[in-house]
Specification:
Chains A, B: One of its GO terms (molecular function) is DNA binding. Two copies of one chain form a homodimer. Chain A has 345 residues and is an alpha/beta fold. Chain A contains twelve helices and twelve strands. Chain A is elongated and about 85 Å long. The interface between A and B is large, with 62 and 61 residues. Strand 2 of chain A pairs antiparallel with strand 2 of chain B, so a sheet runs across the interface. Chain A binds a DNA duplex (16 and 16 nucleotides) through helix 2 and helix 4.
Chain lengths: 345, 345
DNA sequence: TTGAAAGCGCTAACAG
DNA sequence: CTGTTAGCGCTTTCAA
């Protein structure tokens, strides 16, 4: 099934013009006479000619390709971001190379592939990289924008939301509701998002004279969060409120609480998530959460990347966008105060 | 931010060898002496040299790239398939070019981009194309595999599941449960999956002496399915069971039924979905559905594509894989029979 | 084993 | 406006 590869030369021969005339006909800013263009187009159609993008890229030194790297699509928040950002770039005439970060290490190899593939920019979704990895790409002169993760390296643009403030709100709000045994359901322990949300949370609790009651790790994943929840409630003193580092885990937690542990949300346990993915608003879940301004994040990230690609010496930026508490029904109504009833499993 | 582009020639100069020697050092099956290899590698490291994939592709005429085309990632079923298939190809050393089908037409342009981008194969997720579109790609000699959609063209490999049988089961099973007003919540009306599931469903009902009570279109989308559900129950004689053409719509329907229309599932209305995406098993939904053998589908599709890429004259295949009913709690228990209680909105 | 030379298919000066 | 000419960075014969 090897295609015979019709080249511009073949078309030129058939049309009775030079090869460069053919090339011009397929370039946007061409200056070709009507007559030649017609002859060329006719010949091209007859032969089924398509310009070879690879050859074009080689000479123009522009691949019009952007790499998108992502950690996983299990979380619908990220498939949403991926789709939106991809459609945007596609509309701008870019191709998208998709890379998944390998589950256990080997990310350096992916970084290498990206560099070799001559992409003009890299969009990273929730990718944690260390300073060295970051500098490898940046030193190569490829613009990089990271969405929803922070790296300690100013050479790379970063778009995120105010995880600390969100965590702070969650902690203080749960305390203000009268909860006293407030737990943290952690995401990937090494991720900046997890750290920042956790730190804010702890400070928020502290502002109300509380400390973090307990912590379990859910790695931002559904199944892991179910297990973490079971662990919380197998303990002698289970929490009466949970702040989860993302929505997916928060929902996992509620599912486990309600349908496996026989507890009621929010009467027995209040739950707060983070992201506000579409599903969080579904009535079954009705999850109180911190809304990340996803549209704005995508807009800023794509804008930033395009800017760095097009403008020489545009400086990388670190953006922290505000989050918004979305009060729904996974948390108690305010004003009732007091201690919560306890139900053991 | 233009990278200065270190070429193999630069490395050669520094290492004091010929340019082709450098090339050989970066080719898998090279025959290079230990001494030259060391010199070259040292020079390469010093300069930060990376072979240019584009130039390599041009000369080897193999891009080691596969295009993945998808309609939307709103449905987690497809983000799951995308992730799994992508990881597989990535592991096999392929790059993935991601394309989204534009919402309203303009798919021909995307097809054109794909052809021009010199990919070695195309994986289409739930993409509906007509015979002409199909033949354009196939005539170009690019292997194509379509997952979860059927096109009337044998030149293209197609991997799907037995939509008709699934529909048939849903129709006859709901009837056997005693339901008499059984409706169809349709996906994209023009899609083969929707047609096949619908046809099977109608036959399944017929086998029990019933006809389709009513039909609304949800376009495989959450919001549309919510509206469709409202329309079902605004009618003078609402259904007492719904077969939804996919899980996402089935869940949308249940959300609307339970939390907006005040109805109970399965007591007032039974609901059956299609796909068995992970979320369908979450206890809140506990959706009875038809499981598509997603792992097998991915395996077969990737296998088929690789085979067609590597083996000249491997013939395209059309695979129909079996679906499995997953009985959960969105349908009544069997054996109760009888008419259902009716609740108006 | 290594280097020289010939392109892959295309764009981009440069003359005409 | 058109054709000629020179490469883009690499792989791959072919001699040495």
């Amino acid at each position: 099934m090897k295609r015979k590869s019709i080249t511009s030369r073949d078309v030129a021969k058939l049309a009775g013009v030079s090869q460069s005339a053919v090339s011009r006909c397929f370039s946007p800013h061409a200056k070709v006479s009507q007559r030649t263009r017609e002859k060329v187009m006719a010949a091209a159609r007859e032969l089924g000619y398509r310009p070879n993008t690879i050859a074009r890229s080689l000479i123009t030194r522009s691949s019009r390709t952007i790499a998108v790297v992502t950690y996983s699509l299990e979380n619908p928040f990220y498939s949403f971001v991926l789709e939106r950002a991809s459609r945007f770039f596609q509309q701008q005439g870019y191709h998208l190379l998709l890379f998944f970060a390998p589950p256990n290490g080997g990310f350096d190899a992916v970084l290498d592939e990206i560099i070799q593939s001559q992409v003009e920019g890299v969009l990273m979704l929730a990718i944690t990289l260390d300073g060295e990895q970051a500098s490898v790409v940046a030193d190569f002169g490829i613009p990089v924008v990271i969405i929803n993760r922070t790296v300690n390296y100013t050479g790379i643009s970063q778009v995120g939301s105010d995880n600390y403030a969100g965590g702070f709100w969650a902690g203080s709000y749960l305390a203000s509701l009268g909860h006293r045994r407030i737990a943290f359901l952690a995401g990937l322990p090494d991720s900046s998002t997890n750290r920042q949300r956790h730190d804010g949370f702890v400070e928020g609790l502290k502002s109300q004279g509380l400390t973090c009651h307990s912590l379990e790790v859910g790695n931002y994943r559904y199944e892991d969060a179910c297990h973490a929840t079971r662990r919380f409630f197998a303990a002698p003193s289970p929490p009466d409120a949970i702040f989860s580092a993302n929505d997916l885990m928060a929902i996992a937690s509620m599912e486990t609480l309600r349908h496996e542990l026989g507890l009621t949300v929010p009467d027995d346990v209040s739950v707060i998530g983070f992201d506000d993915m579409p599903m969080a608003a579904w009535p079954s879940h009705s999850l109180t959460t911190l809304k990340q301004p996803v549209d704005l994040m995508i807009m800023k990230a794509t804008e930033l990347l395009l800017e760095q690609i097009n403008e020489t010496e545009s400086t990388p930026q670190q953006l922290t966008l505000p989050v918004t508490p979305m009060l729904r029904n996974s948390t108690r109504r305010p004003g009732r105060g007091g201690a919560s009833g306890q139900t053991s499993n």
